[in-house]
Every structure is written in structure tokens, then in C-alpha cells.
Design goal:
The structure is a homodimer. By secondary structure, chain A is an alpha+beta fold. In chain A, 28% of the residues lie in helices and 23% in strands. In chain A, strands 22, 23, 24, 25, 26, 27, 28, 29 and 30 form a 9-stranded antiparallel sheet that branches. Chain A has a 7-stranded parallel sheet with strand order 20-19-18-13-12-11-21.
Chain lengths: 677, 677
Amino acid sequence: MAHRTASDLRTRIPDGGRRRVLVEDPSPNVDGGRYPAKHVLGDRVDAECDLVADGHDAIAGRVLYRRAGADMWQSAPLAPLGNDRFRGSFVVDALGVWELVFEGWIDAFTTWHRGTAKKRAAGQSIGVELLVGAKLLSEGAARARTRDPAVVERLAEAARIVADTRRDPNERFEASIAPDVVAAMREAPDLEHATRSERPLSIVVDPELARFSAWYELFPRSAGDGIRHGTFADVERRLDYVAAMGFDILYLPPIHPIGRAFRKGPNNTLVAGPRDPGSPWAIGGEAGGHHSVHPELGTEADLRSLVRSARQKGLEIALDIAFQASPDHPYLKQHPEWFVRRPDGSIQHAENPPKKYEDVVPFDFECEAWRSLWAELLSVVLHWCDVGVRVFRVDNPHTKALRFWEWCIGEVKARHPETIFLAEAFTRPKPMYALAKAGFTQSYTYFTWRETKQDLTRYLAELVRPEVRAFYRPCFWPNTPDILPEHLQHGGRPMFLARMVLAATLSSNWGIYGPAFELMEHVPRAGTEEYVDNEKYQLRAWRWDDPSSLRDAIAVVNRARRENLALQRTERITFHDASDDAILVYSKRTEDFGNVVLVAVNLDPKNRRGAFVDLDLRELGLEAGQSFQVHDLLGQTRHIWNAGTRPWLELDPTLVPASLFVVRRRVRSEHDFEYFL
Amino acid sequence: MAHRTASDLRTRIPDGGRRRVLVEDPSPNVDGGRYPAKHVLGDRVDAECDLVADGHDAIAGRVLYRRAGADMWQSAPLAPLGNDRFRGSFVVDALGVWELVFEGWIDAFTTWHRGTAKKRAAGQSIGVELLVGAKLLSEGAARARTRDPAVVERLAEAARIVADTRRDPNERFEASIAPDVVAAMREAPDLEHATRSERPLSIVVDPELARFSAWYELFPRSAGDGIRHGTFADVERRLDYVAAMGFDILYLPPIHPIGRAFRKGPNNTLVAGPRDPGSPWAIGGEAGGHHSVHPELGTEADLRSLVRSARQKGLEIALDIAFQASPDHPYLKQHPEWFVRRPDGSIQHAENPPKKYEDVVPFDFECEAWRSLWAELLSVVLHWCDVGVRVFRVDNPHTKALRFWEWCIGEVKARHPETIFLAEAFTRPKPMYALAKAGFTQSYTYFTWRETKQDLTRYLAELVRPEVRAFYRPCFWPNTPDILPEHLQHGGRPMFLARMVLAATLSSNWGIYGPAFELMEHVPRAGTEEYVDNEKYQLRAWRWDDPSSLRDAIAVVNRARRENLALQRTERITFHDASDDAILVYSKRTEDFGNVVLVAVNLDPKNRRGAFVDLDLRELGLEAGQSFQVHDLLGQTRHIWNAGTRPWLELDPTLVPASLFVVRRRVRSEHDFEYFL
């Protein structure tokens, strides 16, 4: 065209036009890399992406990974999975944040190789092809310069043979496809036109405890005899009690001085007597605030001692982070700028109109002084880290700014990457997920209110979706000091046992509020889902050694969790059809089927129920016709079942309302002795 | 801590910590905004995102949108859909690229409003609340300053009344919730801490023809009598023939000079006689290359005339863009740098080892001179745009660099946003999708080989997934000059009719290669899925007026498409269970159920088949028990059916193997006269 020359058209050509490979749909991916995916130390990370290019050339790629901030990348090759999807795997061997990017490129040597082999097989001349191949090998040798000189020499030698027109073409081609030559070429890819994924993805690597843990919540105030105020020393004396049940984490409600103003009396009454201890969540008084210890519990030194003793018994002490103040908190005088002041001069207390919570004053995350507020709150967490605490349960995190948590947890974990934060948020699904993305290690869930087979099945399906499990680690609690669900009020011992087995085997993280749970406390404050005579507002004298306690049953289940790897992850769960609505059957397995567990729970606490079960044999690692053993770790009974038939399962709530089977396959020893493994 | 002060901790606090709302999961979203979603002129765009925040405050938001490059944003408010999802809608009223971002913020006025109303309802004092509200109204008035002074005054007046402690609290509260005050506050939001979505999303707006089109492919060489070489003038004389069948686009294979070297003879033989015309895809010879017209077809002026005449008859002329060269193409001498030169000095021809295509030389998109190559290829498309062509079918785009297409199509559409590109790529799914993302307006599909009920149902489900339909517009072709599928070879007239109805009603874009299709050409070159005596290599004398031609049936179906909006989109399709495997039943509807079409096709060309059909009443806009009329546009028969019963459908392939029903609901006129609409 007269009015338009080709060189006019060049002005808007972007760089990188020869990068023919596109890197798409990378994974693990939380919001396109905005947030990290979660892993634990020692995990194999399977990093996947699509590598898409024009034409029919061979495509190669690699995943580059490093600890965030490291100078050097490590790499793992990407292997094709079919349908243009590729995977590379690597092991994360250090705590903290990692990042990864993908690279893809056209693999000219493999392309050449394939085409030439086909031509040779079709009897066509490959003389010119061999010259092309020799050039590719020479270029490979040049790229390999910085590496092992032996490799360079091997490629150069192959190039000479392939280029040598005096030799037989077949001999020359064979020289190009010698395994060591092919491997050396793979190690020296031509990356000039390689494409990198647009945005690095990130992974946070936590300790194993982040994924597999059993929590026990205890009010130190009642850890003594329940008449005088309990102390950290009393808790220390209870450690064996907790450890014997097989828990990993002992979580204490807030340990800070409790405010006097508007202190709540027993059963959440508005007026407290002079000896009523008040709610531990009304933090701050004369004796200090979030950096201080409630004098009646002891001293910071006592807490250090407790943390140390607990760790010796395999228990981590978890503290409660409740970022709110009682009206007596020193912050109100020292930092009035962190609170909402109303037009009448008063400070805005917590409320959910028309309800008022006058014993609690919230921080104003929109205040002008937000930066000093953030810094102060971070200093609180770091203070308890300095005392030795590494696990925190965070109270109502969904009422504090999401961006604050992302920053605060990031700062804590930059210093102490082994730290674990459990989000106690019972709110809408998306804010709960947003907290997990922002950095919470584990999260409370709706399990407490999921009762029917359909409820539980659907909820687990939601939680183990790849998009969700990438960042959200559920922690199942049958009860909390705030929640005595209706089924525990009326279901009796069978319901306590069923909910315990469900929580501990559906989810790899679970917890109970005790001793209320194992002692089967079930009386609510009238008309509520809350405990009567709640420890939140008073001391309780617990019958620690009650013979009807569930402590032994809990110990059996926690031991089964420790001994069966399949129970140490929430994913890889399968629900099996059972012919009765009250019988819930599910299995879990390790990736390699080395450990398979089958759980059956009778959800009806009043009636003996039975069901035929349609086992999904593939998920159990079984083949039709095979006989196998199920070994019930709760009842210590063993049965031989035949894969392909529908076993009949009957569960009597007056005995044990659940079975926790290990599935053992029949194996034959070299001496022809048959046994179940 | 002695060693750490709160101010030390402030150093790494990011900006924007008071932006409490997160904007997540925005849509329409193709790869996180990397590629545009596709719309057509006049579409209402439903833009959605999650707005997630801490706490219980009211959240508000808006979507900002503009033509790419425009200075000013327009905005539409976001309304809640539940589960923290929000939607804002706007109409795209200009062709080209649009961009959109989301904004979310805490709505302090609504939050105040809700809380105060609850307190008032509970009989609590709201005196202090009213002072808070008065302040919010004053601030709103200040923000509204740049707007209508009447609005400012209205807000200021409301603020005065609400602040006036001499008045009755109820009167004051009422003043704050007057509808015009609430509306004015909504129009003057406090955006100081509003959050914007991270990356703008983009939308490309095409003409309606991009979404709803019927293509007819014709070889001009046979447009005359098939003995002398056809010309553009001959094609012009065939326009009425094509238009009468109801097509929108008349697509011509490449119109450029054809190479002599290695020219293929009839039936793809290796040696061409002196009078054999050769393949139009072997582009370039003495008479020129991609900018030139094959002399035997006429001149560029003839083409201009054809484009003009076609447009007068409602037809767009589509040209074929085949970016490859015959060995005689002028480019090989003028720009040898654009081709791969082999070690023996020869130019690399096209091959798919061991197959060789010696009449075609591919461009080397990895060459050093790639920028001048890109510019030249763009100049080709722009040249034919200058001639008046606006629709292009692109040959084998998947063998040219994806980044090239993204740039090339972007450059063409920046100048001519009404241009349509159809990607003729039959390859793996991901490269096909990648081409659509890169900018192709429509795409060839696997429809040609989807035969069974299960095949077709699954394939449609894949194509209408929201993630796919956002960028991929399928165009269904029962045949092409390259593909005579086996079912057309053996299925006779019933199969031609069935495949025509399927293509034209499953997909809103469809096309045929004619007159081979309507004349039911079905003889393959032995052992292939290709036509014998293919026009690609020779002229054909067609029996244009054959009385057994399917032209009338095609005209009926294309008319039904034009008259029924439901058929003008591929999405909103529902498959209905039919009791016979050969009977495929599906319906399409408009968003408002104003037009509902039900299609039934007998996939068995040899046997009369019947089935009971389980109609999905909701998708037909019907209620159980309602009687309704189905009006078959193919047979012109009408039946009254009763919703909730299973109608029996029987289709005889010796008559018409399909029904194309319009579903008409019974309505009653104001004079109590009943009819079907």
C-alpha cells in the first residue's frame, strides 16, 4: 500500500515474539499467585502448568523454585501428563515462603530427533537431517561450556560423528541418540526463546503440626480444684492428663489481666460479684494488658516453665490472641487514638445492634493511627513468641482487618516460620477463606453444625476441592466454650463418641474443649447453644477422674491417628454408599495405598442401625474377588471381607457407635505363608 | 521488649492498610485478565466479583468501565447476589476493546443506618447515633460539592435536621432515611479507602455477526460452468443462489497466484498436467504473492465489485489467510531470511515426517528477521481490508506463532474493529483455545467428528462452560474441502439433513462447503476422509439446479435461525432425556424465555426411531400440567402437548430426520380468547 509500508507496521511489535511457548494455568495457584499455597516440611510439591505452542514441535520445560529472597533458583524438569499439561516435582526442605516460576521452550533437538527417526523408518534419505543434527549438537556443546568438560567433549564428539559424511548414515544417527548424549542435550537446553510464567507462585511451608494436630482447650482457672483460682502450675500438673489422651496442643484461653468495668457475672449476667473472675476475653486492667499475665494465674516465668514442661511431654502450649480491650485496658488511656470516640466523648464499645458488649472495646482499624496500632499488635504476638509460644488461636479474626492479618502473620513467620495460627472465625464462607489466604495456618469450620450424612458428605467435598485445600486447613471441633451444639445436649454418650470419631477422622486437625467434652457436659443455659455455668464467667470443679469419662476412647482414637498415615491428611477421602441414612461410611488412604482406613459411624444416638455398604474398591486399593481383613481399632475385632460383595455393617450406640477399620490386604510370604498386611 | 520497639515494627507496614475490602474472583475473566472476554455490540455485560471484608459493616462497590485508551471511566453500581458476590451491569455500545476494574468499600452510612434502625426498634436511645449520622451526612454533602448544588443542599439540610437536638429523635431519624437523601448519599460515596481490583479485565466487542453467522464456502474456480476457469464475475452471478439459502458469509479459498513448482494434479497426485490449476493454498507465483489476485479469477477491481454486490445482498465476502508460500512465491527471492535454509542450501519445505508437502514452504517464525516478517504478514491482511473485506478464515493458524496472531489480529482490529477472524485449527484442545484467546473471533471445532448422542452432549457441555464460552465461539462445519467424514459417505440424504440441522441449531455459528454439501457429494478418494475429484486440485462442473439439492431445506433452517433468537447463541442449551439412543433432543431459549426452541434429531440414517422424552420443563419455561403447542418449522406441523407427560417422538429418516419445534405457551387475550404465543 502506498500509504503504509511494512516498516511503519513494525513500530508496535512487542519484544519476545520468538517465544513460541505459552505458560498457562499454573498450579498450585491461589488467586493467580496473590496468596501462597500451603505445604508442610518435607512435602513433595507437584507443580503443574500447561505449555502450549504452535505446530508440532517437541516442548520442554522446567519449574524453577527457591526460598523467597534467595539469589539462586533450583529447577526440576517438567514431564508431560497429556493434553499439554506438564508436571515437575520437588521437595520443600525448609520452613517459610517459597516461590516458583515455570519455563517452557521449543526443544529443537527432540523435534529433530523424532522427525529424523520417522524419515529413517520410512526409508527416506536423512543426509541433510544429519547435518542439521550435528549443528544442534555443536550448539549444545557450546551451551554446556560452563559445565562438566566431559559432557562438553561428549557432545562435541557426537557432533563430529554425526557430521562425518564418510560414515554410514545409520551409525551417525545412532551416535546422536546415545542415551548419554540425549541426557546431556537435555541438561543444556536452548533457553534463548524460553517463556517464563508471568507471576511467580508462592508456597508457604509449615511444620507437620500445621497439617496434623489434636487440640485440647483448657481453662487454667479451673485447673486446680475449681475452688481456689487455678494457676499455670496447676496446668503443669494436668499435662500428663492431656498428653495421655494423645493431644498435641494444649490451648489456653487469654491469660491476661481481666477488666473490672462491666465485668460479667456467672452465666453471662450483667453484674459480677466481687469474687467473680470475669471473662478472660475482657482483656486489660490495672495489672496490664496484652503483654501481661493475669496475676492469679502466676507469672511469665511460670508460663515459660509450663511451655517447657509441655514440650517435654510432646505438647505445644497455644495462647489465645484476642485483639480487643476491656474498658480498663491501659491502651484506652495511653492510646485513645486507636478507638472510636463518639460525639458525646465516650469510647465506642463492641456491639451487634441491638446487642451491646459493654465489657469489650474494639480497636478501630480505620483510625488515623493505624500504623502504630498494627505495630503494637504485632509486638504482642512477638512478645509471646519470645516467651516460647509457637501456636496461637486467634479470637474472632474476622472482625479485624484482613490486610492486618496478612501483614502481622507474615511478620511473625518471617522471624518464626514454625508458628501456627488457628483462625476462630465462624462467619460467611468467603471471609473464612480470606483469612486462610491471608496467612492463618488452620481454621475453625462449620463441622460443629454439620449433622446428617448429606451435610457431612457435602461439606467434606467442599473442603477437599483442590482450589480450597490449597490454602484452607480445616480444624474440626465438636464443642467449644461458646458452642454446645444441640445434638450434644440430647444425644448422650453415643453422640459424644460419634462426634469425636467424626472430628478426629474426617479432618486431620481436630480439637475439643475439655474436660467439658470428655465428661460429657451437656446442659445448656436455657434456650441457648451455650454451656450453663460456663467457665468463661466462673471457676468449675471438674471430676477429672470420673470413670465414665471418654478419655480412654479419645486416647484410642488419637493413637489410631498417629499410627495411620491415612488419617494425617484431610484429603484423599472417599464416601461409600451405605443403604441406611444414619450409617456414614468413608475411607482415607495414603497416596500409595500403603495405609487404608475405613470408618463407619452410626449418626443415630438412640437406635441400633445397619446398612449394606457399596465399597468403592479402587479407593481401597482392592480388586473385585480379593478377600481382605478389616481390623477395627475401636473394638479390636477383625473380619474377613470379600471385595465385590456388599458387607453388612451394624452399629449399636449403646456399645460403640463407630468402627475405625484398618484395611489389610492378604499377602503371601516367600514361604507361602498367607497373612494380612 | 527491650530490644524491639513498636516503632521498629512499623518499618515494613505496607500502604493502604485501611482498605478493608478485598476484591476477589472478578469476572468476565480469561486467565486473570491476560486475554479479553468476548462480547458483541449491544450486549449487557454482567460484571461480577466477590467483595470480602472483616466484620459486619455494609459493603458497597462499583464496576468502572471504558473503551481501552479512553480518559474517563464510566461506572455502574454493584448489587449483592448473596454469598459476598456482587454484580454490576452495563451495555457495550461501541466495537473494540473495553477494560473494566472493580472497586469496593465500606459503606459507613448504610452501616450506621442499619444499626440505628435496630436500636430504635429495640427501644434504645439513639441520641448519640443521630449525632454520628449528622456527621456522616455533612461529610456526604462535602463530597457531593462538585455535583448538583441542589443535592449538596439536600444533604446539608438533612444533616442539620438530624443534628438538631431540639427535635424529636424519630423525626430526626426519618430525615436521614428519606429516599432522596439515601440516594444522594449513595451517589457521593467515601472512596478514600476503596479497594480497586489488581489488574483490569478486558472485553473485546465484536459485531453481531461474530456470534451469529452462517458460512458458505465456494471455490470460485468452479463458479462458472466448471469447464473454463471460474472468475469473481461468475461468483457475483452465484450470489443470489447463496443468499437464497440464507447464508451471511460467502467464503472463498485463497485467491492469489498459484505456484507451478511441485504443483499437485487431480486427486492430490504428485504430477500436474499443464492445464491443472493446482491447489489455491500453494500461494505465490510469477503473477505475485499474498497481495495479488490470481489472474484467472479476474482483477482486484473485480473483487471489489464482488464485495460490494455481496454486501447489497446481505452477504460478507470472506477471504482465506494462508500464511505459507509456494516455492515460486516472490518472497523466496526477496526475503530468503524468512525461511529455514538447510545445510545443503535448500529451503525447508513443509513436512510432517515422513509426509512431505513440497508445494508449500512455511515461514520461519523463529528467524532473526521475525519483525519484518510479522510486519509483512500484517500488511497482507490490511491490504485486503483496504479492498473492503472484513471477514477472514485463517488456514492452519496453529502452525504459526501464537504471539504473532495476538499482535496481528490486535493491529487489524485497532484499525477495523468490525473484522472477524475464523481459526481453521484442527489440533489439540489447548492450542485451539489459545488461538481463541489470542484474538480469533470464531473457531472450527471437533463437531465434524462428534456423532453419537453422548459425543454431542459432552462436547456441547464443554463448549458452553462459562470459562470456555467467555472467549471461544465455536463454528460447526459438517464438511470442509478437506473433510468428508465417514458418516456423510454412507449416511445418505438423512445424514446430510441431520448433520445440517445439528450444526445449525447446536451452534449459533455454522458453515458448509458447497455445493458439495447441498448436492450431497459423498464419494471419498479411496481409503480417505477426503473428497474424490476435490476442487482443491481441479475444476468441478456442479449441477447447481439439481432438484434433489438440499438448498430448500437449508433455507428453511437458516430462516428459522433468523426468526428465533434462541438459536442465535450457542449457550443456554439443555439436553432432554430421550429413551432411545438415536434420538437427540435439546432446547435453546432466550434469557427471558421469550423464545424457546426444541430440536429433535434422529441420528440413525437407516431406521425410523422413536423415544419418550423427559422434558426439563423449567428450561422450557413451562409449569407441570400446562398444555403448550410445539410448532415444527421443518414439517410445518403443530401439536398440543401437556407439560408433565412424556411426549413420544418418532422420526422417519426417509422423510425428515429432525424436528425443529418452536415452543408456544397458551395465553389468554383480554377478550378471553385463547391462543399460543
